[in-house]
Amino acid sequence: MARDTTDFQPIEGIDELVGYLAAGNKPRDKWRIGTEHEKFPFYVDGNAPVPYGGERGIRAILEGMQEKLGWDPIMDAGRIIGLVEPTGQGAISLEPGGQFELSGAPLETIHQTCREGNAHLAQVREIAEPLGIRFLGLGGSPKWSLAETPKMPKSRYEIMTRYMPKVGSKGLDMMYRTCTIQVNLDFESETDMRRKMQVSLKLQPLSTALFANSPFTESRPNGLQSWRGDIWRDTDNQRSGMLEFCFAPDFGFADYVEWALDVPMYFVIRDGHYHDMTRFTFRQFMAGAARNEVPEGLPTMGDWANHLSTLFPDVRLKRFLEMRGADGGPWRRICALPAFWVGLLYDAQALDAAEALTSSWTYQEALAMRNAVPEHGIAAPFRNATLRDVSRDVLAIARMGLKNRARKNRDGYDETSFLNTLDEVVARGTTSAEEMLSAYHTRWGGSIEPVFMEYAY
């Protein structure tokens, strides 16, 4: 999320919070695709991490991008921490360890998503390469320790950094040493949201497996294919995970609100200052618990929007659904991730088929998949088969959905070609992580340094 929200409308009751989510309902012709992708900046000389300040730091890249694009700066305590397109059509933001993120515009087709990604990468390279900086497309930082990783001067991250060690063993790794590709998708009604939420929660471990791309930590194999997936197993289980209540047949907006109300907060913003609210749940905040803690200590709709952005389930509900399971990766993966989920969820026939395929899957089975995938990838077991076997059926449904959408580019090609990189994973039977590990043990000679050349933007 590039910019935290300020909306001073007071909250009168829980019904307003439910209504906030329900306001995301959109007719099908208004459905859009919003793709986010993160990457690790590094100095080509020595493959070292890039700090915020200095003539060749993250700030210099942001200032160069601002001059090039004409986007509005996002400031925090007088420091530039991001950029936003003036009409809201995209933003650039920083993750805690300097991971550089594009939050893409809401677009109609995967073709547009790929053009957007290409343009962004070309623009950022134009600014960064004269500074001796390139970007790495992986799900986990392969070389630098937590102590070696820079910290970005962003107020919300200072609060999170203090809080994370209190609620899990891997929260700081999540913040500072992981990258993802995500896609944000719309729904037309509460029923449509429920169907998409349930299908995508069940299939999120498969997404993690297909995109597994983080096998190294501190210059050595970490024993995992998706270190990032493993990190999310013990980051902050109060605000993350599969959310068993979402599997209920009558799950709706109000259920998500009731859960969110009892998750501890991170912050509220008053007069541009971030106040630490980690002692309170949002329900306690609504009951007046912070009345003496912060100026105007009653909640606003802006506080609610910000709180929703600090919840980290595998599929996050806001006024759209966020698919959060995939590791970061190279350019082709930036296009493949939205193609995968759009194919499954944006065509009625495909959604029916995906729902039928997964209808008998239980929460416990999905959770077992989630726990097995970080180590085993697409070889993770499921019932009497593996996720590789499941992948064939799921990708066939996604391909059908994209074909049915029939969104063609100027050369007459539809969106199905963007799934090819995932078809290759299934055909090979090995993930990107396994391919990297094979290279590490053979042609890389036991060194992870070549990853900075082969997986760089």
Strand content: 5-15%
Globally, the shape reads: globular
Q: Total domains, how many?
A: 1
Regions with little confidence, pLDDT below 50 for 5+ residues: none
Structural class, please?
A: alpha+beta
Named at the architecture level, the CATH assignment is 2-Layer Sandwich
**What percent of the residues sit in helical stretches (DSSP H or I)?**
40-55%
CATH class: Alpha Beta
Radius of gyration (Å): 21 Å
How far apart lie the N and C ends?
22 Å
Helix count equals: 17
Q: Major β-sheet, in short? A: 10 strands, antiparallel
Report the mean per-residue pLDDT as an integer: 97
CATH fold label: Creatine Kinase, Chain A, domain 2
The counted number of beta strands is: 18
EC number: 6.3.2.2
Function: Catalyzes the synthesis of gamma-glutamylcysteine (gamma-GC).
Pfam families: GCS2
Pathway: Sulfur metabolism; glutathione biosynthesis; glutathione from L-cysteine and L-glutamate: step 1/2
Describe the fold and architecture:
- The chain is α+β, with helices and mostly antiparallel strands and 457 residues long.
- The chain has one domain (14-455): 2-Layer Sandwich (Creatine Kinase, Chain A, domain 2).
- It is 42% helix and 15% strand.
- The protein is built from 17 helices and 18 strands.
- The chain has helices spanning 14-22, 58-69, 110-128, 155-167, 171-177, 190-210, 227-231, 253-261, 282-286, 301-309, 331-345, 348-358, 363-376, 387-405, 420-428, 432-441, 451-454, and strands spanning 33-43, 48-49, 72-76, 79-84, 91-94, 100-103, 133-136, 181-185, 216-217, 220-221, 240-241, 267-270, 273-276, 312-313, 315-317, 321-323, 381-382, 385-386.
- Helix 12 (348-358) packs antiparallel against helix 14.
- The protein is globular.
- The two termini are 22 Å apart.
- Belongs to the glutamate--cysteine ligase type 2 family. EgtA subfamily. Belongs to the carboxylate-amine ligase family. Glutamate--cysteine ligase type 2 subfamily.
